[in-house]
Automatic annotation (TrEMBL):
N-terminal signal peptide: none
Annotated organism of origin: Halobacillus salinus
TPR repeat ranges per the UniProt record: 21-54
Keywords tagged on the record: Repeat, TPR repeat
Presence of the UniProt keyword Aminoacyl-tRNA synthetase in the record: no
SUPFAM superfamilies: TPR-like
InterPro entries, per the entry: CellSynth/LPSAsmb/PSIAsmb, TPR-like_helical_dom_sf, TPR_rpt
Name of this chain's protein: Uncharacterized protein
Pfam families: TPR_8
Length: 337
């Protein structure tokens, strides 16, 4: 005796489920809201593949790429949307401008922000585009480009900055922590202090506390360059290369506008052994506020040595030792890998 399911003449009541673009898009948005960005990318890519004529899916994919720091990938997606759908999606121009700004391609950033404003007099990103252009103009004039620590007309903050900076540069961790703690109380909106504090905390020996501190910061802001720099540095110091890799990979796709951030990324890439990329980043640094730093001399020298330029490496190391005698105790760039 056969059951109804076994009967060849019995039609199945099972309706096959065929996922739509909207299904994948919804899953992608859910993952995005939970900050599961890698999963979000996979779902959104599938949505675009299933329904390539829905530009919303591609635009959302570009937003996730931006969150991940994959600015080139984001702009490629946005460029494809503009090519296919034309000026019906003007917001793409602003999003591209923002990505170019993060990459340090300031002329392109200004160009696309202006295109957006020319097309959208009262668009959603109108004010943001104007602010971006204003900021880029100020960078062209040299305002605020040298050091993101600077705040005009705040003498107390400047004194604290210079004091903490001195202790950090001379590896006086306990003294640096005391000053940075006061800074966080007096200037709670000055967020960079918290990352300098975490760095000093780790170097002082409270490694796990520093790691947990930055992990919590990263949960609040997954794109924060300083958190990725610190965590990459911490894990490399602990010889936990596998834990460091996601943060290093993120930084390899980031091209900041500010010299302080540029230096931090270059230093981290050198620590990770990406010497060729590190040298390229160091070459982009021009401001005296960063090219006179101990880490600039040390890690640019190391990266230069490991990319076949020993004479430049030695010259940089000797300059560094003149300003920071403690550096001489480390032997030379050939002693550090």
């Amino acid at each position: 005796m056969t059951t109804s399911l076994d009967s060849p003449n019995q039609q199945s009541n099972i309706i096959p489920f065929v996922p739509t673009g909207h299904f994948y898009f919804t899953r992608g948005i859910q993952a995005f809201k939970k900050r599961r960005f890698d999963s979000a990318v996979k779902w959104l890519k599938k949505a675009v593949e299933v329904d390539p004529d829905e530009p919303l899916y591609a635009c959302q994919l570009s937003v996730i790429y931006t969150e991940l720091g994959s600015y080139h990938a984001a702009n490629q997606v946005l460029s494809d949307v503009l090519t296919k759908f034309g000026d019906d999606y003007i917001d793409c121009y602003y999003l591209m401008a923002n990505n170019y700004a993060h990459l340090g391609l300031l002329n392109d950033a200004k160009k696309y922000a202006q295109i957006y404003l020319d097309h959208q007099e009262d668009g959603e990103f109108h004010e943001a585009a104007e602010q971006l252009i204003s900021m880029l103009d100020s960078l062209d004039e040299g305002e605020d480009a040298e050091d993101e620590w600077a705040f005009d007309d705040e003498d107390d903050l400047l004194i604290y900055q210079e004091t903490s900076f001195y202790h950090l540069e001379h590896e006086e961790w306990e003294e640096a922590l005391a000053v940075l703690q006061e800074m966080m109380q007096m200037f709670p909106d000055f967020l960079l202090t918290k990352h300098k504090y975490a760095y000093a905390l780790f170097m002082y020996g409270k490694e796990q506390e520093a790691i947990e501190y930055e992990q919590a910061s990263l949960e609040q802001d997954p794109a924060n360059i300083h958190s990725h720099v610190n965590l990459a540095t911490f894990y490399l110091e602990q010889e936990r290369e596998e834990s460091a890799m996601p943060h290093i990979d993120r930084l390899r796709n980031v091209f900041p506008m500010h010299d302080q951030q540029k230096l931090s990324v270059a230093e981290t890439l050198a620590r990770a052994g990406h010497y060729t990329e590190a040298v390229e980043r160091f070459r982009m640094l021009k401001g005296n506020q960063v090219t006179k730093r101990r880490v600039y001399y040390k890690w640019y020298s190391i990266a230069s040595y490991h990319t076949g330029n020993p004479s430049k490496a030695l010259n940089l190391w000797e300059q560094g030792v003149q300003s920071f005698p403690k550096l001489g105790r480390e032997g030379g760039p050939w002693n550090i890998k």
